[in-house]
TrEMBL record:
PROSITE patterns: UVRD_HELICASE_ATP_BIND, UVRD_HELICASE_CTER. This is DNA 3'-5' helicase. Keywords: ATP-binding, DNA-binding, Helicase, Hydrolase, Isomerase, Nucleotide-binding. Pfam families: PcrA_UvrD_tudor, UvrD-helicase, UvrD_C. It comes from Stagnimonas aquatica. Residues 18-296 form the UvrD-like helicase ATP-binding domain. One of its GO terms (molecular function) is 3'-5' DNA helicase activity. It comes from the Bacteria.
DNA sequence: AACGCCTCCTTTTTT
DNA sequence: AGGAGGCGTT
């Protein structure tokens, strides 16, 4: 189809393409061929993907039925569907838009017979899987120290992600390899006996379904004429194999990705799939999106300069029509507290001016870094939100309740059986359970069936056990006709879980009860009867496994955002703080040891390109890591960012050090002092050399902790009855909040942020302060 | 079954 | 340091 012809005829199509730049337009409107779109950060990737679909429908008359769009996260999938519907102005329920796992799951539900699964198969989440592997290892009497469950689980998943089944590996490799295969075999048998499917299994089964069932394969070959894949650089071996099988001779692939943003190699993602795609589809058309609509020229220059240090890139250079913007601020903090304080102070500057809390994001390499930042944010009374952490459906109490529901659906689910049997406690202890397990194993029965049939062999225990079995059956009968939410409620009540958590002490208990209520609430939205022939209970349980829910309550509220660099991918913020740029932390020690520096660098690239207007980078010269104070060298990435994009912010060294007499060999700060003047220290010279020497000695086991201390100590002690964060009143400046202290005794000075008079340093002894 | 002590480990995360 | 998980005690 010719684009020009349509611009003149249909105003809707004009609107569809008019806002696109030439490269985007080409990607969106070119005739249907296989296409690979290399989309740089902030270049309008999602836009291209959604517009492409809208274009196909509007111009080429493609039906929603023949489109499949796959993403990695539910969030991305939901967003995509929403934006497509906005563009074409009608709901597109018939279109398959979902995650790899969600799509695989859908196929397996539709073709459970061909996939050789029970109709009511259940999904095992990571936690369930871990437990099951553990039990299997126990059963095989494999030593936990030699074969840690975590490692075995990882290994099994890795095999599945390479498309390998145990029988393909039998009798291969050394002793431990054989043991692993034995574990995989037993684990898989357990899953099959219990009708369970883990995440990797969803993909592998779907792959095998297409591989082994020509009728199914051909059906979908006829159906899906357009297969669109988001974040293609994140696909693993199995996902790629499956995509290839899924695309019939008529299907056109539209893959969007960015090799420079491949940061999940450690979990099996294969950037090479991009090159593979080009080899497997020789005619594939390559489109590069390099114009960036997100960041300032300076930020892009920094990002480009950094990523240029990677080898084997497909090659891209981001550019923008936007202005240069501000220089990137670089701050050398004394320690992690100083760093956090600096971040908070800069946040205040921004917030005083105009900004919203949610404009601000702090990105760090590892979760452990969030604690100090949090502390500082609390003191500063700034609302914040940390991404990541336990999700709703992963919470203990929620999983407990769901175990009861799962048991109603499938009595042979041993994991749920054990969970329901033991929580709340009912006098069936470890010994009885062990007996039951042994009996079940001996007769190759599920725990449920073993308990039912073997009561005699189980001796005295059978009393409490029998009561439990009857209770389950009774609950099943009594709730059979109830709508889902009512069923859930009754289960929570009658299982004794509610009572159990009521008895629990502490503030957690309350939250637990609330979560149980919330679970009932969540169940309500799955009550639409028999949608697409799916049983509401199965539907609900699937949702719980596949979409574990938001990382935290109150999503989307006005708050400063804290997250790892990994979870920041795909997001953008006007103001970004990237903290902890120290060798050993970022790049992480492990990455360096294992030679994964390039992926680390890409992670840094991702971090830089999250920023729209302002980027601030910081590192600490001293940091407590695993409980030990360490001297840190600045990250090597700092050297790789073009220096003309950076401006070093002078530290307020004296604030942190004067009172403790810490003047020791800290190269770099010496000249600055505090107060005006003084050229910013340029380059990062002195930090590096002694940093390396330190690392060498560190590896020999020396602990080079210095007797320094530190913002933390100051903060906790407080002065003359005043504490950090305290509200005070001053006769001429009005009300304010104490931000920090400096010095001791009568020389103590105090930094106060006044509501109407800005931030000031005052001598505590002189200032006529009164607490509020 | 609940509690407390001890040891171990420590990058990143989605489904 | 701090959390998790294992294990032994009450």
């Amino acid at each position: 189809m010719q684009f020009d012809a349509f611009t003149q005829t249909d105003p809707r199509l004009v609107a569809l393409v008019e806002a696109l730049n030439p490269a985007q337009r080409e990607a969106v409107t070119a005739p249907s061929e296989h296409r690979l779109v290399l989309a740089g950060a902030g270049s309008g990737k999602t836009r291209v993907l959604t517009h492409r679909i809208a274009w196909l429908m509007a111009v080429e008359g493609v039906s929603a039925h023949s489109v499949l769009a796959v993403t990695f996260t539910n969030k991305a999938a939901n967003e995509m569907r929403g934006r497509i519907e906005q563009l074409v102005n009608v709901p597109v329920r018939a279109m398959w838009v979902g995650t790899f796992h969600g799509t695989a799951h859908k196929l397996l539900r539709l073709h459970w017979r061909e996939a050789k699964l029970p109709q009511n198969f259940q999904i095992l989440d990571a936690d369930d899987q871990q437990r099951l592997v553990k039990r299997v290892l126990k059963g095989l009497e494999m030593a936990e120290d030699r074969f840690p469950p975590k490692m075995v689980t990882g290994w099994i998943n890795a095999q599945k992600e390479e498309g390998r089944r145990p029988h393909q590996m039998a009798d291969q490799g050394d002793y431990s390899q054989r043991q692993l295969v034995r574990a995989y075999t037993a684990y898989q048998q357990a899953c099959e006996a219990q009708g369970l499917v883990d995440f990797a299994e969803l993909l592998l089964r779907a792959y095998e379904l297409f591989r082994d069932q020509p009728a199914v394969r051909e059906h979908y070959h006829r159906k899906f004429r357009h297969v669109l894949v988001d974040e293609f650089q994140d696909t693993n071996t199995l996902q790629y194999l499956w995509l290839r099988l899924l695309c019939g001779p008529e299907a056109k692939i539209f893959a969007v990705g960015d090799d420079d943003q491949s940061i999940y190699g450690w979990r099996g993602a294969k950037v090479e799939n991009i090159q593979k795609l080009s080899r497997d589809y020789p005619g594939i058309e390559l489109v590069r999106l390099e114009q960036n609509y997100r960041s300032t020229g300076t930020i892009l220059k920094a990002a480009n300069g950094l990523i240029a240090h990677n080898s084997g890139r497909l090659g891209k250079n981001l550019w923008t029509e936007d202005r240069e913007g501000e220089a990137i601020q670089l701050y050398a903090a004394y320690n992690e507290y100083d760093e956090a304080e600096f971040v908070v102070n800069r946040m205040r500057d921004y917030l005083d001016g105009h900004g919203r809390y949610s404009d601000l994001a702090v990105l760090y390499r590892s979760n452990a870094q969030s604690r100090v930042l949090e502390e500082m944010l609390i003191r500063a009374r700034l609302p914040y939100r940390i991404y990541g952490g336990l999700r709703f459906f992963e919470r203990m109490e929620v999983k407990d309740a769901l175990a009861w529901l799962r048991l109603l659906v499938n009595r042979d689910d041993d994991g749920s059986f054990e969970r329901a049997l033991t929580t709340p406690p009912r006098g069936v202890g470890a010994t009885s359970l062990e007996k039951l397990r042994a009996f079940a194993k001996q007769h190759e029965l599920s725990l449920w069936k073993a308990a039912r049939s073997g009561s005699a062999a189980l001796g005295r225990t059978s009393g409490a056990l029998g009561l439990f079995l009857d209770q389950i059956d009774l609950l099943d009968q009594q709730t059979r006709e109830l709508p889902l939410a009512a069923k859930m409620e009754k289960l929570i009540e009658r299982s004794g879980l509610k009572e159990h958590y009521k008895k629990e002490k502490g503030e957690q208990a309350e939250a637990r009860l609330e979560n149980l209520d919330e679970l009932i609430n969540a169940a309500k939205s799955f009550e639409r009867p028999e949608e697409e022939g799916l049983d509401p209970v199965l539907n609900f349980l699937t949702h719980a496994a596949l979409e574990a829910g938001e990382g935290q309550a109150n999503a989307g509220e006005e708050a400063v955002q804290l997250m790892t660099l990994h979870s920041a991918k795909g997001l953008e913020f006007p103001v970004v703080f990237m903290v902890g740029l120290e060798n050993g932390l970022f790049p992480s020690m492990r990455a360096v040891d294992e030679g994964n520096l390039e992926e680390e660098r890409r992670l840094c690239y991702v971090g830089i390109t999250r920023a729209r207007q302002q980027l601030t980078i910081s590192y600490a010269e001293t940091r407590r890591i695993h409980g030990v104070e360490q001297i840190c060298a600045p990250s090597q990435f700092l050297k790789e960012i073009p220096s003309e994009t950076l401006v070093e912010t002078r530290p307020r060294a004296a604030v942190l050090r004067s009172s403790f007499g810490v003047q020791s060999g800290r190269g770099g700060y010496g000249g600055g002092g505090f107060g005006g003047g003084g050229a910013p220290r340029s380059g990062l010279g002195s930090g590096y050399e002694h940093g390396n020497a330190w690392r060498e000695r560190q590896q020999e086991g020396y602990n080079l902790s210095r007797p320094a201390l530190s913002a933390k100590m100051t903060a906790e002690v407080g002065y003359g009855g005043y504490k950090l964060g305290q509200r005070v009143s001053h006769p001429s400046f009005g009300e304010g909040t104490i931000l920090s202290f400096d010095g001791e005794g009568e020389r103590t000075r105090v930094e106060i942020r006044f509501a109407n008079a800005g931030t000031k340093w005052l001598m505590l002894a002189m200032a006529k302060l009164s607490p509020l």
